[in-house]
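Fold it.
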Amino acid sequence: MEHIRNFCIVAHIDHGKSTLADRILELTGAISHWKGDSPFLDQMELERERGITIKAQAVRLSYRAKDGQEYELNLIDTPGHVDFTYEVSRSLAACEGVILVVDASQGVQAQTVANVRLALEQGLALIPVINKIDLPNAQPELVSQELHQALGFSLDDMLFISAKDGKGVKEVLEAVVRRVPSPSGQPEGPLRALIFDSSYDPYKGVIAYVRLVDGRVRQGERLLLMSTGRGLEALEVGVFHPSLTPVEGLESGEVGYIATGLKDVQECQVGDTVTLEENPTSHPLPGYKPVKPMVFAGLYPTQAGDYSALRDALGKLKLNDASLSYEPETSKALGFGFRCGFLGTLHLDIVQERLEREYGLALLMTAPSVAYRVSTTDGKELEISNPSALPPPEKIGEVREPWMRVTIPVPQQYIGPVMELVTGSRGEFLRMEYLVVREGEGAEVGAQTTTVLLEYRMPLAQMLSDFYDQLKASTQGYASMDYSFLEYRAMPLVKLDILVNGQVVDALSLIAHRDEAQRVGRALAQKLMEVIPRQLYEVAIQAAIGGKVIARETVRALRKDVLAKCYGGDITRKMKLLEKQAAGKRRMKRLGKVEIPQEAFTAVLKLGR
């Protein structure tokens, strides 16, 4: 165990952690020189298309240090986006050390601060690495001062590298060997292995990715999942090299996988403890704090017959993504589907795209909403994730919505636009901290700018629209953002119903602030008027709070010229044709059903509420 090092790489988006992982894989001989367009460990098609890491990837490496000793390195490459913070926290639980990568031209960003907090909470060794020192606009000395001032790192502990050309990468591995402690555990004790991730294989069943804390495991042994009491056989035991490579067994302190043969994905949960069936441990590992989804949306198959396929696909996706939650729901407008919970809008977008690509499903998604807590007049406490489930106004005592603590690092000259944007989104200022002076960022070359750390409180519902896009646009792309849950706060919120042709479309309902409800209702009605196709009769689109209509738009009817073939004759002949047409339109309006296109649901997302 003294020659094992378990560590992961964390960073803000696009600071070079996956490129550094590639150089480490090359230096240790795990892969030959990688000439692909995207990082080697980003195996998912979506990751390569978008240029981001979505799933954490583990790999075992062998490294001979300067002292001549052979070390076993277990590396985990992690995502950088705030929506995948849970993926990072799970990876940290399987490690003793962290390489913190910071871009030499961008400096400390929102996720840099967030990842340091996560690592410190778990008591891990931190190795600060300043990357991209080969860039023309790199300012490694200033960034090192920024890390020292903002996060308290010693200047002597920092490493300066270029992951792109491999400069300084060997020093990073030497620092891992020296600074990251070896794992602690009881090799001769009862088996205790933490499941930190999992996947599904049609032949081997559920494959559990594990970190062994105590004991050892061999292929063919009978195992026990402690949370469910489910017994299983270790069909295959192996390590990541970087593909799945079978071995005879895993020892205490090592990271690897166990093929369980389980076909029910619900039986093997991330965070569970694996032990031996014959000699089980009496103390399971702490596991993970259950993640709480913050954003909810309805997913419905466009073909009703695909409902069971969608259910199975969500089950397999949840095995690989523990932060996803789902439960069945029914909509009058859309039929049978699922109410799904996500960590953010990017997470929602990724899940929908994975379902469509990997499982061949055609889906309809409702506009996302957050979870509200409602106190009713009869003393009940409800949690509402679907706006259509909100009780009538007369039965509501109080509605509380989630508020977030938002951290925005931004160059000084963009403070005004950021403040204007956040306060316009019901945000409240908390504090402002000035970091180091930097050269030429967001200004003319040679000019000096100061990076400022802004903190706000703001409702999560305001961040579901295009808030992040507006933040980037108003700061010319220099601002970044991190957020964490703060509290539930009582606000004057109302349910806004949308009626199409006199019928409430429950999937378009939303919850809005009372002061903004009329503006939002009018904007949504106007947008729906543009996207709902014209019928042979007038279609009224109304926004209502309770029984009060606050906005209305009308989709004009298509008019067929029934008099085209009348070249004269008695006027009564024309009148009869027109009356017959009018009667037909009244009948169609009474019996007709207006088909709501997908654009109508995405229109809610772009309201900027």
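The chain has five domains: 4-179, 192-276, 295-367, 397-490, 495-605.
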